Amino acid sequence: MKISVVVTVYNDQTYLAQCVQSLLDQTYEDYEIILIDDGSTDDSGAYCDQYAKTHAQVRVIHSQNQGVGAARNLGVKNAAGELITFVDADDFVGRDYLSQLASAHAKTGAEIALVNNNELHEANGTFYFFLPPELQGTQQLLTPKQAIEYQSSFPYNPPCFVRGTAKLAPRELYLTHPFPEGMMFEDEASTHQLYLAVEKIVVVHQDPYTYRVRPNSIVTGPLTDQRTLDLLRAFQIKVLDLVMAGIDVGPVKARLSGILQTDLATMIAQGRGDSLGSQEYQRLLKIANVLG
């Protein structure tokens, strides 16, 4: 089956070459690369155009800046492949990334295939690997409930079950379950919905995807009120969905409480203890302490 690799690009000129080259080097043959230039103000757009001129499997779409969710949805709408995978422009993958996902998807009959990831922390240039040797190379079939539980409890890097990247799924699934637009933490608000829409998920216990941890990314950047409120909105969507699906939200509550405590301590240390986001975090943590 043809795979469309959707790469969202926003001011990523420093990282784009490594990302695109890793995709051009894939051992899988039937695929295309769609670069979504989400209104970049640096030279990323020009770099994208150059790749499209020199490589037949690369296409570029330029759009006004609307955020990751809208950029991914635009890529899905314009994809020629039956299957979709997302790669962020500051990340990169191993040569067998597509082959591993496609093989697991085809052999198991699971609608969604995913792989683990390693992390490159840019601040110190260190790679971090999470899978133990005895798990490397194995596969595990999961129910939607198990995949959602792993978002909070998987012992070897649970964020790989939350992020929109490092997964392979039918284009039709993404068309009927688009990413939320106009907010950060779109993965937190939507990946569980993909799991709930299918019967089986297969996780390949290998880590061909390198997730780059940057000092000023959405996850690690300044704790603005918009960021904090978007995080709460994402979890509100998740909790409501899980309640309606009859899935225990206790692990999600525990994970959110941990995030709120960490972020609140940072905001107080930055002298932002009276901010709107800080006040809302404190209110929720008081409820958790009373009800917990």
Structure characteristics:
292 residues, alpha/beta, Spore Coat Polysaccharide Biosynthesis Protein SpsA, Chain A, ten-stranded mixed β-sheet, 10 helices, 22% strand
CATH superfamily of the largest domain: Spore Coat Polysaccharide Biosynthesis Protein SpsA, Chain A
- Tally of individual helices: 10
Specify Rg, calculated over alpha carbons. 19 Å
Total number of distinct structural domains: 2
Structural class: alpha/beta
Query: What's the main sheet like?
Result: 10 strands, mixed
Which spans of ≥5 residues are poorly predicted at pLDDT below 50? none
Overall 3D form: globular
Question: How would you describe what is shown here?
Answer:
With 292 residues, the chain is α/β, with parallel strands linked by helices. It has 2 domains: 3-213, Spore Coat Polysaccharide Biosynthesis Protein SpsA, Chain A, CATH 3.90.550; 225-291, no CATH class. Helices cover 43% and strands 22% of the residues. It has 10 helices and 10 strands. Strands 1, 2, 3, 4, 5, 6, 7, 8, 9 and 10 form a 10-stranded mixed β-sheet that branches. The longest helix is centred in the last third of the chain and has 21 residues, at 225-245. The model has no long low-confidence stretch (mean pLDDT 95).
